[in-house]
Design goal:
Layout: H1 9-17, H2 28-45, H3 50-70, H4 84-87, E1 97-102, E2 107-109, H5 115-127, E3 134-138, E4 141-144, E5 149-152, H6 159-166, E6 171-177, H7 179-182, E7 186-188, E8 192-197, E9 200-205, H8 209-221
Parallel strand pairs: 2-5, 3-6, 4-6
Antiparallel strand pairs: 1-6, 4-5, 7-8, 8-9
């Protein structure tokens, strides 16, 4: 797992009080409070609670995908190659197969961190006349079908799909997962991930609270266990 750097108390206070506190500070208790209040209102009004879940899922997905691109602006001493399991521990579960994912039709988390590699990807895209590219070789990562979310963690490969997604071009091949199949195997309380394996339950710390919140809401939306 990636090393977690704890922020000094004063720096954390500054983050909370900034004009746009980063969503990385997402708090499971605050999210649950919002959803619990919405559920109570829906019981009284008869409105469909899925409306609220969809809004939360959308906001968390937008935040994660935006930050995966803007990660290039962080100090390089604090970033490095990204691993899927740091975001959501899926590597121990078999995918349902590979799927070609059209980047114009999904959200993409492909955290960029190397200036030179990103520069080269942008230059190649420009020189191609902004052409689409259907990459034949499979990428490392995961595609979560119900969320239409592509997560790419191949260290040398994150830049090309990130660039293509901005201009809605091209496609990639990724291991595909279904929330309905993952639900009995993977759960979270916002602090820990709980994996059901052949050796019993395993626990992994949550390093990205937004992903844990997104997964829990998505499971709830599709009738999973969250």
């Amino acid at each position: 797992m990636t090393e977690v750097h704890m922020l000094p108390t004063t720096r954390l206070k500054n983050l909370y009080e900034g004009p746009l506190p980063p969503m990385a500070l997402t708090d499971r208790e605050a999210m649950d409070k919002f959803l619990d209040q919405a559920a109570q209102r829906c019981k009284v009004s008869g409105r469909n609670f899925d409306l609220f879940l969809d809004w939360v899922i959308h906001s968390l997905t937008m935040s994660l995908t935006a930050d995966s691109a803007s990660r290039i602006f962080l100090p390089k001493t604090r970033t490095g190659p990204f691993a899927l399991d740091d975001l959501i521990p899926l590597s121990g579960f078999a995918p349902r197969g590979e799927r070609r994912v059209h980047l114009s039709q999904c959200s993409v988390i492909a955290p960029v961190w190397n200036n030179s590699d990103l520069d080269a990807a942008l230059e190649s895209f420009y020189d191609s006349g902004f052409a689409g590219l259907d990459v034949e070789r499979p990428f490392g990562g995961a595609y979560i079908e119900e969320l239409r979310l592509a997560i790419i963690d191949s260290p040398a490969d994150v830049n090309v799909p990130n660039v293509l997604r901005v201009w809605s071009r091209g496609s990639v091949v990724l291991p595909a997962y279904s929330l309905k199949e993952l639900g009995p195997l993977l759960s979270t309380d916002g602090e820990m991930w709980y994996l059901q394996t052949e050796d019993g339950e395993q626990e992994e710390p949550v390093l990205e609270p937004r992903m844990a919140a997104l997964y829990a809401c998505a499971l709830r939306r599709c009738g999973g266990r969250a």
